Amino acid sequence: MNDDSYGPEDPQGVDADRILDAALQLADENNNWYDLGFAELASRCDVSVNDIRRHYADTNAMANAWFARALDAMLANNDDVRMLPARERLEVIIWRWFDSLAPFHRVTAQMLGSKLHLPHVHHWVPMVFDLSRLVQFWRDAAGLRSGGRRRQLEEIALTGIFLATLNAWCRDQSPNQAKANARLVSLLSQAEKAAGLWAQRSDS
């Protein structure tokens, strides 16, 4: 979920965003991210395979760029949630991440499956660091400022909540992934009640 390959327009005029958008559309049409081919994508974009390679070394780099967009959406503007209770802030902020991915829900789930595919073990360690970074940004954007032991508990709890919600989201065929959203709300409420996490506003 890093953003190393998510960059500005190429000097030769081949836009990375346009390539990524085309890749998402093509994978959605074929219902197959795993077998997305650069030759077919280059034909769709009317560019060469080398033009695509200048931006994306492989489909995993494209997936990273897609998740980078989600992080951008999550952190774009949190002024509208500042006055909400901490639990609600956490819900709204992380759901922006999920909501930004929703237009290509099925393809996104396939991306994650590809990253976790057994022959792709080289993707697993970067995913751990990306997950940790996402949770840190989530805490910070929600205004959680605790340190020490409490911070560690919050990070552990939020990591577990995110992974459980992500699992539910990937499988959720309800409109707007409403069941996954309900799962998120329930887990945040349970953590608040059971351990007193984020029970008090942290930015006041």
What's the structural blueprint in terms of helices and strands?
Layout: H1 16-30, H2 38-45, H3 49-53, H4 59-75, H5 86-101, H6 105-116, H7 124-141, H8 148-171, H9 178-195
Helix pairs in contact: 1-2, 4-5, 5-9, 7-8, 8-9
Briefly, what is this?
The protein is mostly helical. The protein has helices at 16-30, 38-45, 49-53, 59-75, 86-101, 105-116, 124-141, 148-171, 178-195.
Overview of this protein structure:
The protein has 204 residues and is an all-alpha fold. It has a domain at 66-195: Tetracycline Repressor, domain 2. It has 9 helices and no strands. The longest helix is centred in the last third of the chain and has 24 residues, at 148-171. 29% of the residues are buried.
Structural category is mainly alpha
| Helix and strand sequence | HHHHHHHHH
**Proportion of residues in helical segments:** 55-70%
Shape: elongated
Major sheet description: none
Strand content: under 5%
CATH class of the domain at 66-195: Mainly Alpha
Query: Which ranges are low-confidence, i.e. pLDDT below 50, for 5 or more consecutive residues?
Result: 1-11
- Tally of DSSP β-strands: 0
CATH fold-level label of the domain at 66-195? Tetracycline Repressor, domain 2
CATH architecture of the domain at 66-195: Orthogonal Bundle
CA-atom Rg in angstroms? 18 Å
Average pLDDT works out at 87
Full CATH superfamily name of the domain at 66-195 = Tetracycline Repressor, domain 2
Intertermini distance: 32 Å
Number of helices: 9
